[in-house]
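Researcher: If convenient, please comment on what follows.
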Amino acid sequence: MPTNVTSPNSLVVGAEFISSGVIYTPSSASMAFVYYVNGSASTTTYDLTLESGRWTVTWPSLGVDVPSDVNWTIYCSCYSGPVEAGVIRVIDP
C-alpha cells in the first residue's frame, strides 16, 4: 500500500538495514525516486545520512505532478541490488 504525501510537503524517510536479526550499518546508502514533472519522467537519487544508527533522507514533492505515484528504491553498499522498493502517492492538498 502506498504512503500518501500531500503536495508540496516533503517526506522524511528512515531506514535500518537488518541481517539475520541484527542491525547492520553499511558504509553508505542511497534512495532513488522516479516521478513525473509536467508529464515527463524524472529520477533523483539522494544519499542517506546516518543519524543515531538510522539512515534518513528528505524528499521534496514540490513540482511533482499531482496526483501521481512516485516509485522509490533503497540501495546500500552491503548489497549489489536494490534493498527495498515501494510507491509514494502524491495527492492534492
